[in-house]
Amino acid sequence: MTAEKTLTDEAAVQPPEETPSDPVADVGSVPAPRRLIWLAPLAVLIATAGLFVVNHGHDADAAAGDQAVSVVSDHVKSLFSYSYQDVEKDLAAEKGWLTGSFADEYAEVVSTKIAPAAAKAKVTTVAEVVSTGLVSAKHDQVRLLMFVNVTTRSTELAEPRVSGSRLRVTADLVDGQWRISALDPV
Protein backbone atom coordinates (compact mmCIF):
# COMPACT_ATOMS: atom_id res chain seq x y z
CA MET A 1 0.00 0.00 0.00
CA THR A 2 2.82 2.35 0.60
CA ALA A 3 4.00 2.01 -2.99
CA GLU A 4 0.50 2.76 -4.23
CA LYS A 5 0.22 5.72 -1.96
CA THR A 6 3.60 7.07 -3.08
CA LEU A 7 2.63 6.92 -6.77
CA THR A 8 -0.59 8.75 -6.10
CA ASP A 9 1.23 11.42 -4.08
CA GLU A 10 3.85 11.88 -6.83
CA ALA A 11 1.16 12.23 -9.50
CA ALA A 12 -0.50 14.94 -7.49
CA VAL A 13 2.76 16.89 -7.14
CA GLN A 14 3.75 16.79 -10.82
CA PRO A 15 2.25 19.47 -13.07
CA PRO A 16 0.01 18.36 -15.95
CA GLU A 17 1.61 18.04 -19.36
CA GLU A 18 1.59 21.29 -21.32
CA THR A 19 0.07 21.52 -24.78
CA PRO A 20 1.43 23.81 -27.50
CA SER A 21 0.15 27.39 -27.16
CA ASP A 22 -2.65 28.32 -29.60
CA PRO A 23 -3.65 32.07 -29.44
CA VAL A 24 -7.24 31.35 -30.52
CA ALA A 25 -7.58 28.58 -27.98
CA ASP A 26 -6.08 30.87 -25.30
CA VAL A 27 -8.84 33.51 -25.82
CA GLY A 28 -11.46 30.88 -25.25
CA SER A 29 -9.75 29.74 -22.10
CA VAL A 30 -9.92 33.21 -20.46
CA PRO A 31 -13.07 33.46 -18.36
CA ALA A 32 -15.83 35.65 -19.89
CA PRO A 33 -15.81 38.28 -17.10
CA ARG A 34 -12.09 38.92 -17.69
CA ARG A 35 -12.59 39.28 -21.45
CA LEU A 36 -15.41 41.77 -20.98
CA ILE A 37 -13.96 43.79 -18.11
CA TRP A 38 -12.56 46.44 -20.47
CA LEU A 39 -16.04 47.01 -21.95
CA ALA A 40 -17.43 48.59 -18.76
CA PRO A 41 -15.00 51.58 -18.73
CA LEU A 42 -15.45 51.99 -22.48
CA ALA A 43 -19.24 52.04 -22.13
CA VAL A 44 -19.00 54.62 -19.33
CA LEU A 45 -16.69 56.77 -21.46
CA ILE A 46 -19.02 56.64 -24.47
CA ALA A 47 -22.09 57.39 -22.33
CA THR A 48 -20.32 60.34 -20.68
CA ALA A 49 -19.27 61.76 -24.05
CA GLY A 50 -22.81 61.35 -25.35
CA LEU A 51 -24.30 63.12 -22.34
CA PHE A 52 -21.77 65.94 -22.71
CA VAL A 53 -22.71 66.46 -26.36
CA VAL A 54 -26.44 66.35 -25.63
CA ASN A 55 -26.11 68.65 -22.62
CA HIS A 56 -23.91 71.11 -24.51
CA GLY A 57 -26.45 71.20 -27.35
CA HIS A 58 -29.27 71.71 -24.85
CA ASP A 59 -27.37 74.56 -23.15
CA ALA A 60 -26.72 76.22 -26.51
CA ASP A 61 -30.39 75.90 -27.46
CA ALA A 62 -31.54 77.29 -24.12
CA ALA A 63 -29.15 80.24 -24.41
CA ALA A 64 -30.39 80.91 -27.95
CA GLY A 65 -33.97 80.86 -26.71
CA ASP A 66 -33.26 83.27 -23.86
CA GLN A 67 -31.43 85.68 -26.15
CA ALA A 68 -34.07 85.52 -28.88
CA VAL A 69 -37.04 86.13 -26.59
CA SER A 70 -36.05 89.70 -25.71
CA VAL A 71 -34.82 90.61 -29.19
CA VAL A 72 -37.85 89.17 -31.00
CA SER A 73 -40.24 90.73 -28.47
CA ASP A 74 -38.80 94.16 -29.27
CA HIS A 75 -39.13 93.50 -33.02
CA VAL A 76 -42.76 92.38 -32.72
CA LYS A 77 -43.56 95.43 -30.62
CA SER A 78 -42.09 97.65 -33.35
CA LEU A 79 -43.86 95.78 -36.17
CA PHE A 80 -47.25 96.43 -34.58
CA SER A 81 -46.56 100.01 -33.47
CA TYR A 82 -46.81 102.70 -36.11
CA SER A 83 -48.16 106.12 -36.89
CA TYR A 84 -49.96 107.03 -40.11
CA GLN A 85 -47.38 109.79 -40.58
CA ASP A 86 -44.38 107.41 -40.55
CA VAL A 87 -45.69 104.07 -41.85
CA GLU A 88 -43.43 103.99 -44.92
CA LYS A 89 -40.36 105.07 -42.95
CA ASP A 90 -41.08 102.49 -40.25
CA LEU A 91 -41.38 99.80 -42.93
CA ALA A 92 -37.81 100.43 -44.09
CA ALA A 93 -36.49 100.01 -40.53
CA GLU A 94 -38.67 96.98 -39.80
CA LYS A 95 -37.70 95.14 -42.96
CA GLY A 96 -34.16 94.68 -41.57
CA TRP A 97 -35.64 92.56 -38.75
CA LEU A 98 -37.39 90.20 -41.16
CA THR A 99 -36.06 87.41 -43.34
CA GLY A 100 -37.11 85.03 -46.07
CA SER A 101 -40.42 85.22 -47.85
CA PHE A 102 -42.01 86.77 -44.76
CA ALA A 103 -40.01 89.98 -45.34
CA ASP A 104 -41.48 90.36 -48.82
CA GLU A 105 -45.01 89.45 -47.71
CA TYR A 106 -44.90 91.96 -44.86
CA ALA A 107 -43.60 94.74 -47.13
CA GLU A 108 -46.42 94.10 -49.57
CA VAL A 109 -49.14 94.10 -46.89
CA VAL A 110 -47.83 97.32 -45.36
CA SER A 111 -47.54 99.09 -48.72
CA THR A 112 -50.85 97.98 -50.22
CA LYS A 113 -53.15 97.72 -47.19
CA ILE A 114 -51.85 99.07 -43.89
CA ALA A 115 -50.27 102.35 -45.08
CA PRO A 116 -53.24 103.49 -47.21
CA ALA A 117 -55.79 102.59 -44.49
CA ALA A 118 -53.66 104.24 -41.79
CA ALA A 119 -53.31 107.45 -43.81
CA LYS A 120 -57.04 107.60 -44.59
CA ALA A 121 -58.18 107.18 -40.96
CA LYS A 122 -55.09 108.74 -39.33
CA VAL A 123 -54.35 105.53 -37.42
CA THR A 124 -51.74 105.29 -34.72
CA THR A 125 -51.03 102.04 -32.92
CA VAL A 126 -48.95 101.19 -29.88
CA ALA A 127 -48.16 97.53 -29.24
CA GLU A 128 -47.18 95.96 -25.96
CA VAL A 129 -45.86 92.41 -25.69
CA VAL A 130 -47.67 91.15 -22.59
CA SER A 131 -46.18 87.67 -22.43
CA THR A 132 -43.85 85.43 -24.39
CA GLY A 133 -43.42 81.68 -24.17
CA LEU A 134 -40.63 79.68 -25.74
CA VAL A 135 -42.15 76.83 -27.76
CA SER A 136 -38.88 75.42 -29.13
CA ALA A 137 -35.28 76.51 -29.46
CA LYS A 138 -32.31 75.48 -31.53
CA HIS A 139 -29.06 77.39 -31.75
CA ASP A 140 -30.22 79.05 -35.00
CA GLN A 141 -34.03 79.05 -34.78
CA VAL A 142 -36.65 79.69 -32.12
CA ARG A 143 -40.41 79.41 -32.07
CA LEU A 144 -42.32 81.61 -29.68
CA LEU A 145 -45.91 82.11 -28.59
CA MET A 146 -46.54 85.78 -27.90
CA PHE A 147 -49.45 87.65 -26.40
CA VAL A 148 -49.61 91.19 -27.76
CA ASN A 149 -51.99 94.02 -26.87
CA VAL A 150 -52.39 96.78 -29.45
CA THR A 151 -53.94 100.13 -28.63
CA THR A 152 -55.35 101.82 -31.73
CA ARG A 153 -56.28 105.47 -32.07
CA SER A 154 -58.00 106.79 -35.16
CA THR A 155 -60.25 109.58 -36.39
CA GLU A 156 -62.87 106.86 -36.92
CA LEU A 157 -62.79 105.77 -33.26
CA ALA A 158 -64.38 107.76 -30.45
CA GLU A 159 -62.13 106.10 -27.87
CA PRO A 160 -58.83 104.22 -28.19
CA ARG A 161 -59.44 100.53 -28.86
CA VAL A 162 -57.35 97.83 -27.22
CA SER A 163 -57.19 94.45 -28.91
CA GLY A 164 -55.27 91.38 -27.93
CA SER A 165 -53.53 88.97 -30.27
CA ARG A 166 -51.84 85.63 -29.86
CA LEU A 167 -49.00 85.14 -32.30
CA ARG A 168 -46.85 82.19 -33.24
CA VAL A 169 -43.49 83.71 -34.17
CA THR A 170 -40.53 81.95 -35.78
CA ALA A 171 -37.16 83.68 -35.72
CA ASP A 172 -33.95 82.59 -37.43
CA LEU A 173 -30.40 83.58 -36.57
CA VAL A 174 -29.12 85.27 -39.74
CA ASP A 175 -25.66 86.86 -39.79
CA GLY A 176 -25.60 86.89 -36.00
CA GLN A 177 -28.98 88.68 -35.71
CA TRP A 178 -32.40 87.27 -34.78
CA ARG A 179 -34.81 87.93 -37.63
CA ILE A 180 -38.48 87.04 -37.87
CA SER A 181 -39.17 84.47 -40.59
CA ALA A 182 -42.83 83.79 -39.81
CA LEU A 183 -45.57 85.45 -37.82
CA ASP A 184 -48.96 83.77 -37.65
CA PRO A 185 -52.03 84.64 -35.60
CA VAL A 186 -53.27 81.80 -33.40
Briefly say what this structure is.
By secondary structure, the protein is of the alpha+beta class.
Q: What does this molecule look like?
A:
This protein is of the alpha+beta class. It has a single domain, classed as Roll (Nuclear Transport Factor 2, Chain: A), CATH 3.10.450.230. Helices cover 52% and strands 28% of the residues. The chain has six helices and five strands. The protein has helices at residues 2-13, 23-29, 32-36, 39-80, 87-95, 100-121, and strands at 82-83, 124-138, 141-153, 161-174, 177-185. Strands 1-2-3-4-5 form a five-stranded antiparallel β-sheet. The longest helix is centred in the first third of the chain and has 42 residues, at 39-80. It is elongated and about 85 Å long.
Tag the structure with descriptive keywords.
Nuclear Transport Factor 2, Chain: A, single chain, alpha+beta, elongated, 5 strands
β-sheet strand percentage? 25-35%
Termini Cα gap: 103 Å
Number of helices: 6
Number of domains: 1
* Oligomer type: single chain
CATH superfamily: VirB8 protein
Q: Which structural class matches the secondary elements?
A: alpha+beta
**What is the total tally of β strands?**
5
The level-1 CATH class: Alpha Beta
Outline, from the CA principal axes?
A: elongated
Which architecture name does CATH use?
Answer: Roll
Summed over residues and divided by their number, the pLDDT gives a mean of 80
Give Rg in angstroms: 37 Å
Q: What kind of sheet is the major sheet?
A: 5 strands, antiparallel
Spans of 5+ residues with little confidence (pLDDT < 50)? none
Which range best describes the helical content: under 10%, 10-25%, 25-40%, 40-55%, 55-70% or over 70%?
40-55%
* Adjacency order of strands in the biggest sheet: 1-2-3-4-5
Q: Tell me the series of helices and strands, N- to C-terminal.
A: HHHHEHHEEEE
CATH topology name, in short, is Nuclear Transport Factor 2, Chain: A
